[in-house]
Amino acid sequence: MSAANSDATTGRTPSGRWQLKDIVLVVVLGVVFGVLYWALVQAWGASRLLFGDLSEHVLAGGWLIVAPIAIAIIRRPFAGIAAELIAAVIEFIFLGSPVGPMLAIAALIQGAGSELPFALTRYRNYSWGIFAVSGLLGAGLVFFWSAYRGGWYGTDLFWIRFVIQAISGVILGGLLAKVTVGGIHRTGVVDNYAIGRETR
């Protein structure tokens, strides 16, 4: 079986046991993407000022990307949720995100939504479709939390907001994550993790 095909569906269920290197990598990914997420907040704020409130949903999928990346490399339960939570902590505690501590709740919802499709395949399927559904669920679930906080329920633009955010989730939080994982994998730096062992 080729590496490309086995990367999509390994046919094996990874062990749920975490190793120290898995924990370290999740922390590193969380820190790196916490910084990137903070930078995205700056772009998000500028976008709202220039183009209005609807534009914020165009970038929403960008805050999902670390979860599927962590899951695909480590292939352990809760890797995506942990990575999102760590990124949120870095973003609002150390970098002072204007979103504040409520960001942790959003991160938990995003991480859970992004991880669910992989969990349903018992962490065996890493196809384009699964990544796309991951981005869709992550963006979709957190949208309803944001809608509650933002008072969007009952407004005329509610479903337009949802559709824009869902598309963003699929593209930025799903398909871009798949491309990123492929690029990291090809460098060989993660060969000693589950992604490397299970695609040989």
From TrEMBL:
The chain crosses the membrane at residues 23-45, 57-74, 86-108, 128-146, 158-177. Keywords: Membrane, Transmembrane, Transmembrane helix. Pfam families: ABC_cobalt. The keyword Transmembrane applies. The keyword DNA repair does not apply. InterPro entries: ABC_thiamin-permease_prd. It comes from the Bacteria. This is Thiamine ABC transporter permease. It comes from Parenemella sanctibonifatiensis. The lineage of its organism: Bacteria, Bacillati, Actinomycetota, Actinomycetes, Propionibacteriales.
